[in-house]
Specification:
- This is XRE family transcriptional regulator.
- About 60% of the residues lie in helices and about 0% in strands.
- By secondary structure, the protein is mostly helical.
- It has a domain of about 55 residues.
- Helix 2 packs parallel to helix 5.
Length: about 90
């Protein structure tokens, strides 16, 4: 088995188009996930805040964010930060 040193961006390493953008999106989604955590109650509240279906939110949190615009992901994160039901949640940078 051949081992190659990573560039630091897994998306670049595997040849994904726009690897820098994909990495930024992944980092935003990771922050969204940190704020929500995976309890059903919090997911239900987040669905209402973000205007996504539960299926869409769960798919997003499981890495299916390629078709989302970066600006939309940032907006989702900002909406969660502004909502009092997520006060005290670990907020992303």
């Amino acid at each position: 088995m051949k081992i190659e040193k990573s560039s630091g961006n897994v998306y670049a390493d595997i040849g994904v188009a726009n690897p820098e953008q994909m990495l930024r999106k992944a980092l935003i989604v990771a922050q969204i996930s940190q704020v929500i955590t995976y309890s059903e109650d919090r997911i239900s509240r987040a669905v209402g805040i973000l205007g996504l279906s539960e299926t869409e939110l769960k798919e997003l949190l499981h890495g299916h964010f390629h078709d989302y615009r970066e600006a939309d992901l940032v907006e989702y994160l900002e909406k969660l930060h502004q909502d009092k039901s997520f006060a005290g949640a670990k907020l992303g940078k």
